[in-house]
Amino acid sequence: MRKALCLFLLTYVIGWFCVTSQAEVGPPEKTELKIGFIKLTDCAPIIIAKEKGFFEDEFLSVTVEAQANWKVLLDRVINGELDGAHMLAGQPIAATIGFGTQADIITAFSMDLNGNAITVSNEIWRKMQEIDPTLAGDNPTRPVKASSLKPIVEEYKKRGTPLRFGMVFPVSTHNYELRYWLAAGGIKPGYYTESDKTGMTDADVLLSVTPPPQMPATLEAGTIQGYCVGEPWNQQAVFKGIGVPVITDYEIWKNNPEKVFGVTKAWAEKYPNTHIAVLKALIRAAKWLDESEENRREACVILSRPEYVGANVEVIANSMTGTFEYQKGEKRAVPDFNVFFRYNATYPYYSDCIWYLTQMRRWGQIDSARSDEWYFETAKSVYRPDLYLIAAKELVKEGALTEQDIPQTDGFKPPTSDFIDQIEYDGRKPNEYLRKFQIGIKD
Q: Given pLDDT bands bounded at 50, 70 and 90, which one contains residue 443?
């Protein structure tokens, strides 16, 4: 494993040298583009790149188009109806390894950090408060652990009506974050098997797919008792008085990567200069979003338009401007709930890709053991920091970025224990990481 990692890092260094010594990027080969997105606040870099003229600065005429759901979005990128799209971090990875639709999808841009939460119905929240007195009142102890949900899960199972939670897609960050939180509290979220593609085998709680904008209505109808989704659909539950967000993904995994911008590998190879131009515009948009409170508030107004997110400005601002409202009257400062540029948020780290791969294996989406070397090589084929660096270096030349804005890294973040269960993750040791969990597949 050490030899493989050394070879992997040597390849990275050679790639870095090639990037830094490359010739100037030429004009885009294709100038009229269609980019897809889902109605969530973290589509913001795409929308801002269009509305603030960053695409135009790169001589691109871009149409942005909301998609019905994540599967439709991915299919349209694969068949060429979309040039690229706002994607779940797990989508390019799953497509490349053949879980679900098989296709070579790459990403050279991470769209944001954090931004999700888990919401439960008012009834479930009341039961959790009865079980755990520290959750009672207007200022409950946080973060809320799933252990306070466990007796309720057991009660519903005995009735023969297991709790049902919604998540947005089988390879979504929301699925893995919800599973992580449940498992950290001793609750089994179920496994994917060859005969069970729903991931409900041996499950204490049944998780199913619900499109993000439909989450609040599905909760209100009683079809599900909770969900994990991005904003503004947790805050929408608070505004409508139908549910309570119990925990944010920032509290599950501090500064976790969320969405990415994805294109097919074939598209990136056919239109390399166009791809770099798009990346440049997205990086500038992300930086603009994190530059000031004024910019964030302007972004909330833009995103509220019906053709974009289509939610009330106040609902969007509740999580986009440094706060998060867990329940009515309990608004707390969470300055890093939505991060678009700070902490090198736009950089596509190999270690982020490897974390998602470990969770795919943990829950059975990867159906057999893989070597550490396989994790490294898969990450290298999907996440493309080499392309990111070309775009970033061009922006440095133009004065839009500084050298300090570009991380000096081999593609791996330092080991971290910033998880709700405090289990340390080191992207260089994926199999060792998997063996640390009490619940989940261990190789």
A: confident
CA distance 298 to 117: 23
227-268 pLDDT, tens digit each: 999 999 999 999 999 999 999 999 999 999 999 999 999 999
| CA distance between the termini of the chain | 15
Residue 291 pLDDT greater than 90, yes or no: yes
Name the helix (H) or strand (E) containing 37: strand 32-37
Give, in degrees to the nearest 5, the angle at Cα 113 between 110 and 119: 130
Q: Which residue from 315, 287, 281, 282 is spatially nearest to 301, judged by alpha carbons?
A: 315
AA identity, residue 118: I
Q: Express each pLDDT in 37-49 by its tens digit.
A: 999 999 999 999 9
Task: Cite the residue boundaries of each domain of the chain with CATH code 3.40.190.10.
Answer: 2-112+258-434, 116-252
pLDDT at 20: 41
Per residue in 397-419, pLDDT tens?
999 999 999 999 999 999 999 99
Contact (Cβ atoms closer than 8 angstroms) between residue 117 and residue 249: yes
Answer yes or no: are the C-beta atoms of 36 and 85 closer than 8 Å.
yes
Please say if the pLDDT value at position 442 is more than 90: no
Q: Where are the alpha helices (DSSP H) in 137-253?
A: 150-159, 173-184, 215-220, 233-240, 249-252
Q: Are strands 164-167 and 84-88 parallel, antiparallel or unpaired?
A: unpaired
Distances, alpha carbon 247 to alpha carbons 5, 29, 93, 103, 226, in Å:
36, 45, 26, 34, 12
User: In terms of Cα–Cα distance, which of 389, 418, 320 is closest to 16?
Assistant: 389
| Top CATH class, 2-112+258-434 | alpha beta
pTM: 0.94
| H or E element in which residue 332 lies | strand 330-333
Is the pLDDT confidence value at 14 over 70?
A: no
Going by the DSSP 8-state scheme, the letter that residue 201 receives in this structure is B
C-alpha angle 365-371-372 in degrees, rounded to nearest 5: 100
Q: What is the mean pLDDT of residues 97-114?
A: 96
CATH of 116-252, one of 2.60.40.1120, 3.30.160.270, 3.40.50.300, 3.40.190.10: 3.40.190.10
pLDDT at 367 over 90: yes
Q: What is the DSSP letter of 23?
A: P
**379 Cβ partners below 8 Å, 6+ apart?**
350, 351, 353, 354, 357, 411
Q: What's 125's DSSP letter? A: H
